[in-house]
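Good day; I would like, with your permission, to put a structural problem before you. A protein sequence and the structure tokens that stand for its backbone fold form the material at issue. Thank you for your consideration; the sequence and its tokens are set out here:
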Amino acid sequence: MPISRRNLLRAIGLGAAATAAIPSLAELSFGNSRTLGNFGASATDLLNAGRAGSVPPSAPIILSRNENSYGPSEKVLAAMREALHMANRYPDDDENALANKIAALHGVKREQVVLGCGSGEILRMSAEAFLGSGKTLIVALPTFEALGHHAQRMGAEVVAVPVSKNWSHDLDAMLARSDAPTGLVYICNPNNPTGSLTPRRDLETFIKKLPANTHVLIDEAYHHFVGGTPDYVSFIDRPIDDKRIIVARTFSKIYGMAGMRVGYAIAAQPTALALGEHRLANSVNIVAAKAAGIALDDMEHVRMSTKRNASDRQEFFQQASARKVPAIDSQANFVMLNAGRPTTEVIEHFRKNGILVARRFPPLDTCVRVSLGMPPEMTEFWKVWDMMPEKMTT
């Protein structure tokens, strides 16, 4: 009989809040917030993380980038193949058709949809539209770093606010750091790398209290993986009347199209227009645009991918529990484990054994984020985990 995540995590000592099993932010000597002079690794470093050095001759198992290991549906693959004969044409009509389909799906106007080369381009456009010299970006610590890099390139200050004890965004602390120069607040929900949720009701209260000129980018890349919970409702599915809100989505996760690079934003028309001014023309290629349109229609594949992920995630927690390995409750397609040793050592151990896991996410310097692969891949992951010596040295 499967056990619930709630009971499982209670059994291994976590529950809704972090315990001493995973280092608390206070124990890691971080205060309520800090300003980062250098927001982590460069974009190139992020792309190459986990790839440095040699790996065994066979292709490595990739559990480092939160991809959908099952890939796109057969209908989407067929659309990609069919679209190749149009490779000599620019994708204007197909981009517009995709944007219209997205607008219809979410019940918004076409003018509220902004396409991007993955949701990564949405993050870049947001930085260019609402940040710059003298402006501030407020983010959680840890969270997905790409927007922070874009902000720094724009000359903006990046203020990182440690997450709460229960791994949600510390909205009170983020609000305390928000003032007139705050151009943008970034909320990744579920958060990457923790997989944790920040309740919708708390976000609504937080947004109402922000300065009137502060925009909020809500990154819902992992939206489809969230299990039934009253704490989570998408800001697209139940919008609020606030022109400052931008919601980002991607085809990289549930639709299995990370390599195709398609994302989009939904925002009020004036905000969408401001974003669109910074968009690279034809940033969604013709194959990706046609495939994404088919992916939106293939709801059976979405349901199957959601079901598979929930099953794989449950199995992962059961394996972690059997080994008494603490984990943060996840509502995404990855899990953050506390290895109880330096993250860099764990990364290297797996690399030497043909598995790539995610980079280090300070301040969680004994934790490792593991993307959920197919069952045979996860069997190999736990096999390699069990091979780790009790004591490791760098």
